[in-house]
Amino acid sequence: MLKRKTMNVKALICFLFCFSAMVSFAQDGKDAWESTRIPELVLAFTKTEGWRHKSIEKGVKTLRELGRENGFIVLQTETAADFNPENLKNYKLVVFLNTTGNVLNTQEQAAFKNYIAGGGAFLGIHAATDTEFDWPWYNKLVGAYFNGHPNDPNVRKATLTVTDATHPATAHLPKSWERTDEWYNFKSIDPNIKVLVTLDEGSYEGGTNGNYHPIAWYHENLGGRAFYTGGGHTIESYDEPLFRTHLLKAMLWCFKRDSE
């Protein structure tokens, strides 16, 4: 588990930009210098106060791989004190990767709320919905709360239905997408989310949401872009090409790099 003090993010950005620009210049000449852009920074928050998923480290590794391949940089933290105005303003996206329980205090919550209101972006993966149950604003941000899952086994095969293939995070997916994961049931589903993918409860046992069982959605209701996907419980999830692209395209959408 990673513990760290708040880093000097501005210095890191400067170093990375200068390094990438020099490399590009050396390889491609003057035009490359002019076209080099500062990479987006992503904060992957993995603090847990409840169940801790074994897939967290694999998830962070996957996000970092996607970043190296697509021009953004992922920094991991489990230090809630990093949720302060001075630090958060450096990030284009904050990812709650299998967080659980109450992970932010009142001051940190206020900083995060202001970050989103100011146009910051949020991506929740799997247990992000098993987080901050006593914070109504977070319910609206993440879109729903965890309400149990099938047991014995908790991981099982199910069929997902893509209900909106116009979004970048679902455009590559088949209409009927069969995969294996731990399938959450939800409560307190916000009526303003825009659902992209639903679960077919007839394809597995243990679903409790009935005919309306969203599993991936997005919205822009609180000032910035927000996306949630229910996949990502298993280590194996992060090796699936379709799921990896789903995550990547969700992140690029959060960056407003929609057309990539």
Automatic annotation (TrEMBL):
Gene3D superfamilies: 3.40.50.880. Keywords: Signal. Residues 1-26 form the signal peptide. InterPro entries: Class_I_gatase-like, ThuA-like. Transmembrane segments: none annotated. Residues 42-254 form the ThuA-like domain. This is Crp/Fnr family transcriptional regulator. The lineage of its organism: Bacteria, Pseudomonadati, Bacteroidota, Flavobacteriia, Flavobacteriales.
